């Protein structure tokens, strides 16, 4: 005989299936960052392998590289997923004394937690924005540790005047990287002119790579080419390169976006031709030496 009284207690509280029973939010597990760990940023959905952790403006950032070689940085901490589970990324665990040291993108020993050194009076100059961005991506850690500032020339034509205004001397060295430094080129003549300036000898060094543009210093395999194309005289080297890649090349916006795609494929010095990476190492050594 069934009771006509209503059930005061509702359904079984131990059944766990009540529609009005609040679901417990999943807890976030602390996970120390390690290179090549694949994580997802829960807010944006960006997924990639951890490539490095660096400190910028007092904040630790973790860099993720996606399957297409693009990179983005996110604040270290909560808000990530690993295999769909929420995690909080924490600083790397201390390594045993006999562990192999971490390496920066340039191949040097990575100095964890080091603040940037106060900028030296000595400088490194490069021709343009793309040169500066490539140098910063590969050698940025070394430059911060050494306190070396990289500045843009916006072309080499005004190099002698800029060097004269810089007034190089002891403790105020200058290292210059120029494109297309080959016999008979305009850049070679400018370099020779610079070295005849007062104070240049022993305090200035001008080095260069053989490429018409720094784009060609990126190993072509990084963008799916066997070799960078030969661009006929009269055609902009950047436009011709983008045409060969089958990428948009109609205007400066396309060129800027094309360069960012190329730059995103560079992970370390191994993705840059030795004819460039060797010169950068020489320039850093030069401006950090006591004159």
Q: Can you list the strand order of the major beta sheet?
A: 1-7-6-2-3-4-5
Task: Give me the strand/helix succession.
Answer: EEEEEEEEHEHEHEHHH
- Proportion of residues in β-strands: 15-25%
Briefly note the structural class of the backbone: alpha/beta
What is the number of E strands?
A: 11
How would you explain this protein's 3D organization?
By secondary structure, this protein is α/β, with parallel strands linked by helices. It folds into three domains: 62 residues, Roll (SH3 type barrels); 139 residues, Rossmann fold, CATH 3.40.50; 47 residues, no CATH class. It contains six helices and eleven strands. The strands form two sheets. The chain has a seven-stranded mixed beta sheet, with no helix packed on it. A four-stranded parallel beta sheet has the order 9-8-10-11, with helices on both faces. Strand 3 and strand 4 form a beta hairpin. Helix 2 packs parallel to helix 3. It is globular, with a radius of gyration of 27 Å. The protein starts with 28 loop residues before the first strand and ends with a helix. The N terminus is likely disordered.
Features:
291 residues, alpha/beta, SH3 type barrels, Rossmann fold, 3 domains, 7-stranded mixed β-sheet, 4-stranded parallel β-sheet, 6 helices, 11 strands, globular, disordered N terminus
């Amino acid at each position: 005989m069934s009771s006509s009284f209503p059930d005061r207690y509702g359904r079984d509280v131990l059944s766990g299936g009540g529609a009005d029973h609040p679901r417990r939010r999943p807890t976030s597990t602390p996970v120390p960052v390690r290179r090549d760990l694949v994580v997802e940023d829960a807010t944006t959905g960006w997924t990639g392998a951890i490539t490095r952790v660096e400190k910028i403006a007092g904040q630790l950032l973790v860099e993720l590289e996606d399957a297409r070689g693009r990179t983005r940085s996110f604040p270290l901490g909560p808000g990530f997923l690993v295999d769909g589970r929420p995690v909080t990324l924490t600083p790397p665990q201390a390594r045993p004394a006999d562990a192999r040291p971490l390496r920066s993108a340039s191949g040097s020993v990575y100095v964890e937690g080091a603040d940037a050194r106060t900028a030296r009076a000595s400088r490194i100059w490069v021709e343009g924005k793309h040169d500066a961005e490539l140098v910063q991506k590969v050698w940025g850690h070394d430059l911060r540790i050494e306190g070396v500032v990289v500045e843009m020339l916006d072309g080499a034509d005004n190099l002698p005047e800029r060097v004269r205004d810089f007034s190089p001397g002891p403790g105020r060295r200058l290292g210059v990287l120029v494109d297309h430094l080959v016999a008979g080129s305009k850049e070679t003549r400018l370099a020779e002119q610079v070295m005849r300036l007062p104070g240049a000898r022993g305090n200035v060094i001008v080095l260069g790579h053989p490429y018409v543009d720094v784009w060609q210093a990126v190993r072509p395999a990084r963008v799916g080419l066997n070799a960078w194309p030969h661009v006929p005289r009269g055609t902009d080297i950047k436009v011709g390169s983008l045409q060969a890649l089958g990428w948009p090349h109609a205007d400066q916006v396309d060129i800027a976006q094309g360069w960012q795609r190329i730059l995103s494929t560079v992970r370390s010095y191994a993705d840059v031709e030795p004819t460039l990476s060797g010169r950068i190492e020489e320039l850093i050594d030069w401006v950090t030496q006591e004159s």
